[in-house]
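B., you asked whether I could sanity-check this one before it goes into the benchmark set. Here's the sequence:
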Amino acid sequence: MFGKTDKIEVGGQAVIEGVMMRSPKRVVTAVRRKNGQIVVKNEPYVALSKRYRLLGLPVIRGVISFFEMLVIGLKTLNYSAEVAMNDLEEEQKEKDARERKKKASRNEGFLVVSLILGLGLGLAIFFFTPLLLTNLLQIHKGAISFNLVAGAIRIILFLVYVWVISLFHELRRLFEYHGAEHKSIFAYEAGHELTPEQARNFSTKHPRCGTSFLLIVALVAILVFSLADTVFALKTGHLPGLAQRLLIHFLLLPFVAGVSYELLKLSGRAHQHRLARVLMAPGLWLQRITTKEPDDDQIAVALVALKEALAP
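And here's what the prediction gave me:
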């Protein structure tokens, strides 16, 4: 999720019993332990798009930001999981320093494996499966019709996925922290005092949430892939087959992500315009599932992360 003022941009993510906030200078993760203490991990970080001018160009910066957030997101989730595991170990009185070192080294490897498996699974479910099903339905009349059906299947699969994970009780608190993240950034954007009392009055649904970004990706993909298939047909005299579509669309995924990122930023700047509100509406509707109303303790954790991220 991304928030913005004239001075500082901040983005966030819910983690296990906590929230990560990212500013141009640092990544901060705040997690509440079982004893009520809030532990904070504060790491300096400057985005690649800020360090290298070429990577900061429109569209390219979106691709870079997408992969950076994947890595940062997994690292912060890993950290919050470690905090939770430490609490369990203390409860069970199993404090073995050497074993924890082994776990830490295994976690680094697990992080890499998780990233690879997560990307692979995501591509299989949301990229390959829609193309395969559309091909099996024998929809070959044209580039637009094929990609409209594939895009519809992709969106349906995504909605079903989000709905299914929302049924797990364990994930409800994650969605509550997601709501706390949004409320905190809303309060910051409005210039209010960063307290739970001020933040609780804001909505849990933010137009620049990552959930909205994924829906934008699905819609942009329909347009970009349709154009690519049309160009292929004009060059070769026939529409691409399944294998050719897989290759062409896969190669275009970074471009789709980059364009979607620019549209998300644009929607944030133009969110008061009627057309922008209409375009943002589906993402806000989806957040009825991915965000829940947090309590003040959860908002307090999000505010700790936000204040640390905004520190000079």
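One thing to flag: The chain has a mean pLDDT of 81. Otherwise nothing jumped out at me.
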